[in-house]
């Protein structure tokens, strides 16, 4: 029995050791990728449910890793949060997102000018960037956002910062609250992400300076097949409406879900039905394809 215990220990210990080494290696690689600006963002369109018009994009982080291929955020965002790398990483992703959307909007402005007075204008696009609580707690954050907006010329109202419901519910503190209010003052909009998956005490929807509510995809999945689920989503939309929030349904994958959302008076949708997240180089083509039906 004594031997067994030893063997188990010997067997177990190297495993943990390997994991720790691998984690350290991944952290170092991520730090280097951030330094060299190798982490990038893909863009998923957010679409108006009524007429299918693209009104903005959510930016989603991607890491082209030399060995692992294109690594998704579920792998490296938690690592970045745990190691503090989220601050420089967040800065890099925010800057890319703001610069890209500023360029796409400039092209739209030029098209509007060319079309001449009296013709139908295309409205500017917004960009929604995911932000971790660690960033909101950084006392420099709102000044950085201000500087970034000024440098790019992007209107603050065209920047949306997405914070998950669980981040907002569990850990918001004085500094985070101050940052949110400063951003709000600036004109930046705040979205509550993954709504319905955190501790849903609804009173905080009124207390926090939120503009947009994103219904988590787990609520959308069964909306076309389950009347109960549809009733729940309809209720959420009615509450959001009453509070003056706009609503985005996430994870829309089927026409049936789309139709059901239209019936629920949902403003905006996002999901594979319309488009997966695209590399920045494909966004102009998507917008062009949309303009010529
Ligand atoms: P999220 O903010 O909820 O982003 C939506 C996720 O759903 C994305 O996964 C997107 O690719 C995926 N998705 C979009 N449409 C559909 C659909 O129709 N069906 C399904 N099943 N999924 C869909 P992704 O890109 O893997 O991102 C995962 C999470 O990582 C994000 O969830 C967000 O919480 C986090 N994340 C991504 N980029 C960043 C970032 O720049 N900063 C921070 N802090 N977090 C990020
Ligand atoms: Ca999001
Ligand atoms: Ca979400
Ligand atoms: Ca999520």
From TrEMBL:
Superkingdom of the source species: Bacteria
Domain called EAL: residue spans: 23-291
Protein name per its UniProtKB record: EAL domain-containing protein
The species this protein was found in: Actinospica durhamensis
């Amino acid at each position: 029995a004594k031997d067994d215990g030893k063997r188990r220990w010997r067997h177990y210990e190297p495993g943990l050791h390997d994991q720790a080494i691998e984690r350290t290696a991944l952290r170092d690689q991520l730090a280097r990728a951030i330094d060299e600006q190798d982490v990038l963002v893909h863009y998923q369109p957010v679409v108006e449910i009524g007429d299918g018009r693209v009104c903005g994009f959510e930016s989603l982080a991607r890491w082209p890793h030399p060995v692992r291929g294109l690594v998704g955020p579920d792998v490296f965002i938690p690592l970045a949060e745990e190691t503090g790398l989220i601050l420089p990483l967040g800065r890099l992703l925010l800057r890319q997102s703001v610069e890209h959307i500023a360029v796409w909007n400039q092209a739209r402005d030029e098209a509007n000018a060319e079309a001449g007075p009296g013709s139908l204008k295309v409205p500017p696009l917004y960009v929604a960037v995911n932000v971790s609580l660690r960033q909101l707690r950084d006392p420099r954050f709102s000044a950085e956002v201000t500087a970034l907006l000024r440098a790019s010329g992007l209107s603050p109202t065209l920047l949306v910062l997405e914070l998950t419901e669980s981040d907002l519910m569990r850990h918001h503190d004085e500094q985070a609250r101050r940052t949110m209010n400063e951003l709000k003052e600036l004109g930046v909009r705040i979205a509550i992400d993954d709504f319905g998956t955190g501790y849903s005490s609804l009173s905080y929807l009124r207390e926090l300076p939120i503009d947009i509510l994103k219904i988590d995809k787990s609520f959308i999945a069964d909306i076309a097949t389950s009347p109960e689920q549809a009733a729940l989503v309809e209720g959420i939309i009615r509450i959001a409406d009453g509070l003056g929030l706009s609503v985005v349904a996430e994870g829309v994958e089927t026409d049936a879900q789309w139709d059901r959302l239209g019936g629920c008076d949902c403003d905006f949708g996002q999901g594979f039905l319309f488009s997966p997240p695209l590399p920045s180089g494909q966004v102009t083509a998507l917008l062009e394809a949309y303009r010529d039906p």
